[in-house]
Specification:
The structure holds two protein chains of two kinds.
Chain A: H1 2-8, E1 10-13, E2 18-19, H2 39-45, E3 47-54, E4 57-63, H3 67-79, E5 83-94, H4 100-108, E6 133-140, E7 142-143, H5 159-162, E8 163-164, E9 167-169, E10 174-176, H6 181-184, E11 198-201, E12 207-217, E13 228-241, H7 252-257, E14 264-266, E15 273-275, E16 297-312, H8 321-345
Chain B: E1 9-11, E2 21-27, H1 31-42, E3 47-53, E4 61-68, H2 74-102, E5 106-108
Antiparallel strand pairs in B: 1-2, 2-4, 3-4
Helix pairs in contact in B: 1-2
The chains are: A alpha+beta, B alpha+beta.
Amino acid sequence: MQVDEEARRIVHIGAERVSNVSSTDFPGHAPDEDQSWDLERFKNKLSVKIQRLSNRSIEFDLVRVDASIANALRRIMIAEVPTICIEHVYIWDNTSVIADEVLSHRIGLVPLNVDPAVMDVRQGNDATDRNTMVFKLDVTCQRRPDAPKYDGKGEPPKDSELYINHEVLSKDLVWQPQGEQVNVFIDNPPAATNSNIVLAKLRPGQSIKIEMHAVKGLGGDHAKFSPVATASYRILPSIKLNPEKPIPPHLVPKFQQCFAPGVIHVDPVTKAVSVADPRKDTVSREVLRHPEFAGCVELGRVRDHFIFNVESEGPYVPERLLPEALSVLRTKIATLRQAAELLLNGGEVSDTEMDVS
Amino acid sequence: MADAVPPKIRIMKGAEPDLSAATYQIYDESHTIGNALRWMLMKNPKVEFCGYSVPHPSENTIQVRIQMYDNLSSLEALIAALSNLDDLCLTIGEAYDKSLQEGEYTRWEEKS
């Protein structure tokens, strides 16, 4: 049965079709098998392993969970983990060439370093220091008094040599503390996570003067609120060599070339082929195109092995994104449970007024 | 139009009086919860059938259909599935924190 279970985890990949696609981990699917939910069994089988972590991204493996769970976490990281972004822009002056609405849109997309945990969601128009963050932008472009004269020969002078403030950058957003915010954000003053985003370009005499209000929101409402640049998973490739049909030594280099670099290891002495790292493979199915390798190898993917790659773009350090997603999911579950229990204690089948004719 | 928020869960017309078979309409949820909940309900051997749908992409609801064996209550199965799903989240969180603390991973510096 152990062998059977391992074989069942593999989605088989043929030259022109995939098979064994659906998961079968449900009660009643196979006789004499208990596939019902068992927390202890899940705990023992589950494996979560962080593979790589940088200041901006994380790669981790989530093994022995169903695709629906992995997908729920992915979807929540993209669309339901809250962040703070500029939502209202009040333009006092904009004499630049970029239109008000385009400028406002660009400013909205700037990721801010404000921890969403300390902010409330703003309901309607009642702005307070708990739910709104105010920024100001006041930039005027001028000619440098010491600008070099250009006589038409050689390299023309750079904009930065000719003008002051010829580019409006995200670092020009100035935080205006409101009420208690001075104390709350004293250690980490709100600003853009990346200080060098160009928001507009100016020429002498042009200026931009605006006030901006940042609020808490969800990626589902607008992509600017998404805390991740990407949050995706792929499924671990599986490459099984057939021991009964080894690769003939003269074809070994060709065989190795059929896979991504580092996937196939060739013993330098015996020329025996082994799978070194299936994770590196792209599952291009190139081997299946060559008749000489027919029956030598079986390609597949491990159905319940998810390799997550998450890039943070905003206030969260990458390793905090999955815990945040889990806590969002748990909040959803708690809300649903409360509603379901209310329904249970509320008695019989509720009204049927929602009948749509 | 009334601005009242619809109830989070509503039992739709046509449910069995003992709730052994019922369709639940869940407001403000999507595939995120729908598919995970469907999977957890199907792990219950007393569930005869479970499926979910998003009836219309511009309506912010999902519908979950649950049919039970032995005239059991689908509502109780739903609550049990939710609580199991919560345990699952906790378990994943614990395993993740453990891996993070053990620190057996490659650390690298990425330029923005």
